[in-house]
Specification:
mainly alpha; Arc Repressor Mutant, subunit A; 2 domains; 3-stranded antiparallel β-sheet; 3 strands; about 5% strand
């Protein structure tokens, strides 16, 4: 590749990697995780951790920790090859990525919230049993039950999201719309 072409490609990769790092940071992940995933996603071949560290400017320790987290969430996977070095590739199916993150991060959080709200409901019911005329306790109980119901709806949605289905028909339709041919 000519040096100027290589320079443009390297700049584009850095811009894309930095952009996804910003997105990751915005949604509560470390920016380095977004940069690592972007680097792997845009790489035609799997990369070793030392190459990832070199390309991102992160320490090998930071890369190793990030790869562990990304792997646990199903966003990055270890692939065979590389001899003594471990090779990594990005999960490229966006729906699989969303499912993995939801299962590993959001679902446990929401389960904990629903459980605490259930316990709060029980405590409020006990308080109301001791003082049935207390309008404030009755009000708070009604609100806590509403929040608990909302949390259960959220859990149902997350569980359904984890079921196998494909998004390709929707993406195809969206792509055709963005190209101006809605009738296909």
């Amino acid at each position: 590749m000519p040096p100027k072409a290589e320079a443009h490609r390297a700049r584009a990769l850095k811009l894309a990697s930095d952009a996804l790092g910003e997105v990751a940071d915005h949604v509560g992940f470390k920016g380095s995780m977004g940069r690592i995933w972007a680097l792997l996603y845009l790489s035609p071949d799997p990369l070793a951790a030392d190459r990832i560290a070199e390309a991102t400017g992160l320490s090998t320790g930071a890369v190793s920790m990030a790869l562990g987290d990304l792997g646990a969430w199903g966003i990055v996977k270890r692939v065979p090859g590389g001899g003594t070095k471990r090779l990594y590739a990005a999960e490229s199916d966006m729906l699989t990525i969303v499912r993995g993150v939801v299962r590993a991060r959001e679902q446990p959080l929401l389960e904990g919230v629903v459980a605490k709200l259930a316990t709060a409901s029980i405590e409020l019911e006990k308080a109301l049993a001791l003082d049935p005329e207390d309008p404030e306790t009755a009000f708070v109980l009604e609100r806590v039950r509403g929040l608990q119901g909302l949390g259960k709806v959220g859990l149902t949605m997350l569980e359904r999201m984890s079921l196998p289905w494909t998004v390709e028909p929707l993406l195809g339709w969206m792509g055709r719309r963005s190209l101006g041919s809605e009738d296909e």
